[in-house]
Amino acid sequence: MFYQLLKYVLLGPLLRLMFRPRVEGLEHVPEEGAAIVAGNHLSFADHFLMPAILRRRITFLAKAEYFTGPGLRGRLTAAFFRSAGQIPVDRSGREAGQAAIREGLGVLGKGELLGIYPEGTRSHDGRLYKGKVGVAAMALRAGVPVIPCAMIGTFEAQPPGQKFPSPRRIRIRFGEPLDFSRHAGLADEKAVLRAVTDEIMTAVLALSGQEYVDRYAAEVKAEEDQRRKESRRSGVRRGN
């Protein structure tokens, strides 16, 4: 009930007013049945823009930190994310990937739409990064199509570090569904999972036009953060 209230009364109209989204390829999203929508991830606003423009309800796997904040603010944030169709997933520890897959398969098992960002985190520089194979594992185990999706303009509307998005027109593109039935029964084959994931990311890249980086975003960001820390320490030492 609250999901519908957010979409049609509270949040949806505001997002449409701020971003005036131009949507392409919406006919590729099935009107019923389980499917995965796999897209790039450029902004915090992505979580809410796609549900606002889709006719069907879509459930996203979201990082658990959104649901565990302290105090009243934390409880309100958690309630908001759950009402907006988000499922908390702990991304730390060895079992994190399997936990996400289990949650995703649960959504698909009910014949619903599942939203996934294969990069695993928001792009910190607007480029498209290597996808993690969880999306392939879910697609093969559930036997469902994957609809590639590209958000265009959301990085500029809300780059990292900016608390609130700036009004600007954005574009959302959906590609033709990708059918991986030829790989049925091979969900435990690492080479197959990698190939399927790369095919999905290639389709997203064709829609988004981003620069592609064949590395995981979290690794690149961690290296850049470390270089910045070392540069600051070097500057301090030179200043002494």
Structure summarized in a few sentences:
This protein has 9 helices and 9 strands. With 240 residues, the protein is of the alpha/beta class.
Overall structural class, as computed from helix and strand content, comes to alpha/beta
Number of separate structural domains: 1
- Distance between the amino and carboxyl termini: 61 Å
Task: Kindly provide the name of the CATH class.
Answer: Alpha Beta
- Element string (H = helix, E = strand): HHEEHEHEHEEHEHEHEH
Which topology does CATH recognise?
A: Glycerol-3-phosphate (1)-acyltransferase
Strand coverage percent: 15-25%
Number of helices: 9
Rg, Cα atoms, Å: 18 Å
Total strands: the figure is 9
| Oligomer class | single chain
Pfam families: Acyltransferase
Domain Phospholipid/glycerol acyltransferase: 35-154
Biased composition (Basic residues): 229-240
Protein name: 1-acyl-sn-glycerol-3-phosphate acyltransferase
Structure description:
With 240 residues, the chain is α/β, with parallel strands linked by helices. The protein has a single domain (1-57, 86-239), classed as Glycerol-3-phosphate (1)-acyltransferase (3-Layer(aba) Sandwich). It has nine helices and nine strands. It has a seven-stranded mixed β-sheet, sandwiched between helices. Strands 6-9 form a two-stranded parallel ribbon. It is globular and about 65 Å long. The N and C termini lie far apart (61 Å). Residues 35-154 form the Phospholipid/glycerol acyltransferase domain. Residues 229-240 have a biased composition (Basic residues). This is 1-acyl-sn-glycerol-3-phosphate acyltransferase. Residues 220-240 are annotated as: Disordered.
